[in-house]
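In response to the reviewer comment on reproducibility (Comment 2.3), we provide here a single inverse folding case reported in full, input and output, so that an independent group could reproduce the run without further information from us. The structure tokens appear first.
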């Protein structure tokens, strides 16, 4: 990339993601239609003008996830980290299991590639996102879009993407308080019964095919989980009331979104959305929660500079 290209403003639109989807622990995720939007411009010093969800936290320069990751990558690659001014409109709630950290890290990588003049392939970008995140699922869905499964072999990420059924709809049911991923991981046991592992393997094997073949009738069974949801239910109070809704009121499945505390509810189609929303609100009773209506995205991050898009 030329020096002129490196100084050109960069526009990013990075989707929210929901990972695990029941049994796909650290392996499966899907892109959702609310976003982190960033316009990055070279500047004399670092700055962030943030609007949207959690704008106060997003606008903090100290310990900023995006800038720290951006500088770390360029320092390792022995490139100059050009100070950037960011205009940010955030639609992804922080700490709610909607892939906010993956979106931030993918943003940092793309800024490092652009402003650092790195000639990285799509595969290299995804590899870097995996190394920064520690797991590939959210990052793969954010970058590639659609329904994604990913497996790691050393530093290499092997991923497969399919376009989710166009008719399916979703609600992200989000409680009032966030949940740090570290706390959600801390409640998991060090080992599992073989019978629980078998159930997860069976369900995970159905999960990708249900998305690929528009098999909504399989989604309730395909999202069964014995590895993380039973242990996180105590700290994710929306999970148990919503799990029982799968198979009724047009609701195909309910599962923790990422590590929680939000729950992703998949709905058969637009015609059932109102019925499903009524059932959700009835099930959660007096628990304070926000319902974010969503669609599944066929494509991932939108990257543009000089009026051109980055192809994957």
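Designed residues, in position order:
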């Amino acid at each position: 990339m030329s020096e002129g290209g490196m100084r050109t403003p960069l526009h990013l639109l990075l989707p929210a993601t929901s990972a695990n989807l029941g049994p796909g622990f650290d392996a499966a995720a899907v892109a959702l239609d609310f976003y982190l939007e960033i316009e990055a411009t070279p500047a004399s010093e670092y700055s962030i003008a943030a609007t949207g969800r959690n704008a106060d936290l997003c606008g903090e320069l100290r310990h900023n996830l995006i800038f720290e990751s951006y500088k770390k990558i360029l320092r390792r690659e022995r490139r100059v980290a050009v100070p950037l001014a960011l205009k940010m409109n955030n639609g992804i709630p922080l700490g709610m299991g909607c892939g906010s950290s993956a979106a931030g890290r993918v943003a940092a990588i793309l800024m490092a590639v652009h402003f650092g003049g790195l000639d990285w392939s799509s595969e290299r970008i995804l590899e870097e996102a995996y190394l920064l995140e520690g797991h590939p699922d959210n990052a793969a869905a954010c970058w590639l879009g659609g329904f994604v499964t990913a497996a790691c072999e050393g530093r290499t990420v092997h991923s497969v993407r399919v376009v989710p059924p166009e008719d399916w709809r979703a609600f992200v049911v989000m409680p009032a308080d966030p949940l740090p991923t570290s706390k959600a991981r801390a409640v998991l046991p060090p080992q599992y019964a073989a019978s629980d592992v078998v159930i997860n393997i069976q369900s995970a094997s159905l999960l990708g095919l249900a998305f690929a073949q528009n098999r909504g009738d399989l989604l309730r069974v395909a999202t069964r989980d014995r590895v993380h949801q039973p242990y996180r239910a105590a700290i994710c109070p929306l999970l148990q009331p919503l799990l029982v809704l799968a198979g009724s009121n047009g609701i195909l499945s309910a599962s923790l979104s990422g590590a929680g505390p939000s729950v992703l509810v998949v709905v058969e189609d637009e015609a059932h959305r109102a019925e499903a929303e009524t059932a959700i609100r009835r099930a959660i009773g007096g628990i304070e929660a926000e319902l974010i209506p969503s669609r599944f995205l066929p494509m991932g991050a939108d990257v543009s500079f000089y009026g051109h898009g980055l192809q994957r």
